[in-house]
Amino acid sequence: YLEVLLHLFTGRDLLYLPQYFFFCICYGACFTLICGLFGNKGYNTAFKVLNFILWIFYSAEYVVFTIFQVFYPFSILKTAAGNHLGTFIGETMRAVVKCIPGILAMAIPLILSFVLSAKFGKKRKHAKESKRMKNSAVIVLSLILAIVSGLINLAIIYLIPSKADITPKQLYRQDTAFVEQTDQLGLFTMVRLDIKHLIFPSSVSSDF
After folding, report:
1. For residue range 118-127, what is the model confidence (pLDDT) as tens digits?
2. Rounded Cα distance, 5 and 1, in Å
3. How far is 136 from 111, CA to CA, in rounded Å?
4. For every residue of the chain, which 3-state class applies, written as one string?
5. More exposed terminus of the chain, fewer Cβ within 10 Å: N or C?
6. Backbone angles phi, psi at 176, to 5 degrees
7. Would you tell me how many other CB atoms lie within 10 Å of the CB of residue 127?
8. In this predicted model, which residue has the larger pLDDT, 83 or 11?
9. Contact by Cβ (8 Å): 30, 142
């Protein structure tokens, strides 16, 4: 949902949505697994915290793209924010105001997490043993779904031919071309790859 909204509000093409659709499922399953690890009592809180972090992250990238027409990964986001956003405070504020509709639309999952938590929270006060079993099942199923969907998406990237100038396979291995990575692989995958390349530097050149 957030990936689609980000692409729509930033005017990016949704042509490549099938190339990162299963990654979105994989990340959703991973987030469900993480929430499940906090047990029945902590699940709702963890779910709301994760939704809040995702909302802030996608909203920030949306505002940054509106100003600079580029998506920033973690490796340069702090530097960019300090060197550029602070210099153009007026432009930044205008961009935030311009992005309010998109930011509010991105907040819908967060709002729903509070609404659903309040609605179904009362029903979870009974059958503690049953809840433990359900929580364990959610963790196991989330793990399986994350692995399967992740492997499917990797197969799509590496096995299905692409007519793009820079193919998904090439983008998946390099540590630059952040806009192209976001277009073809999704923002979250771009950031994940950036973190990976900070730990394990990429040997692939951006010149193909």
Report:
1. 666 555 555 4
2. 6
3. 26
4. CHHHHHHHHCCCCCCCHHHHHHHHHHHHHHHHHHHHCCHHHHHHHHHHHHHHHHHHHHHHHHHHHHHHCCCCCHHHHHHHHHHHHCCCHHHHHHHHHHCHHHHHHHCHHHHHHHHHHHHHHHHHHCCHHHHHHHHHHHHHHHHHHHHHHHHHHHHHHHHCCCCCCCCHHHHHHCCCCHHHHHHHHCHHHHHHHHHHHHHCCCCCCCCC
5. C
6. -135, -160
7. 11
8. 11
9. yes
In this structure, what token pair is assigned to residue 121? 């929270």
Residue count of the chain: 208
Whether the model clears a pTM of 0.70, i.e. scores above it, the answer is yes
pLDDT tens, residue by residue, 56-75: 999 989 988 888 888 877 76
Work out the mean pLDDT of the chain and round it to a whole number.
82
The amino acid that residue 204 corresponds to is: V
